[in-house]
Give the backbone structure.
Amino acid sequence: MNADHGSVELQHLRYVLALAEHGSFTRAAAACHVTQSALSHQIAALEAELGARLFTRGAREARPTEAGRALLPHASAALAAVRRARDDVAAAQGVVRGTLRIGVIPTTVAVDIPQAVRAFRARHPAVRAELSLGSSDEMIAQIVGGDLDVAFLGLRADVSPAGVAARELRRERLVTVLGPGHPLAHRRRLAIAELDGSVFVDFPAGTPGRAQTDHAFDAAGIRRDIAFEAWHADHILGLVAADLAVAMLAPAVAEGAPGVVAIPTTGAAERVEHLAWHATDPSPAARAFVALVG
């Protein structure tokens, strides 16, 4: 179809999104591999078709107008729908293609992520795999919103992923992690009450990783002194190894880590790892990955 005959083409929408992302006609044209004049002409044609100015033009920048901002989510959704249609048609012919967006918490231990992605790519070479780190609650929202295809989550044993389909992968009780100079480092087993008065390092407040330990200490009636917060287990282990704090982590994360001692602890939180995906409309790539992980 031709835009001059009253149609909005997919290419117009791609140009709109590129211009909104890059903020200048020069950069957007380069990203779209067209000349600046061609992109400018197509944007102007779309504005004429819609009867609204979509971008304000400056000497070096272009910004979406109110009408342009109203168009952006529809443009993004239209292009995503076309991509998904192509992927579904290919899947019906036995070919899995498209992009697989995988979310991972930093403390995933149930699955060897690099090996899983490698095996998936070997089986489905037409799929581009992308990996990003995040917290479990954020990634659940991203799956629901269509920004992730699958995610590896870590939650308290009494909490199930809400709004997504999920499969339990691993269940384990956290262990206490101590530095070599801690007075309790020689023990084979601890009770959570014995940690009362210790200085802790934990994941940031409000994250599912932190909720696991908060719940366990609340149940034991212990108010913790949390002096340090860190996103990654390596940072937590480093602070523990320096005898600056104690922590509670998954056994597979803590056991064997250099410079620390991991001790089973009565009353510690139970943690469950899940693989999650869209509850009603998983992409062909997501379905293939879930089947592979088993």
Q: What stands out?
A: Residues 1-6 have pLDDT under 50 and may be disordered. The chain has ten helices and 13 strands. The chain has three domains: 3-90, 96-171+273-293, 175-268.
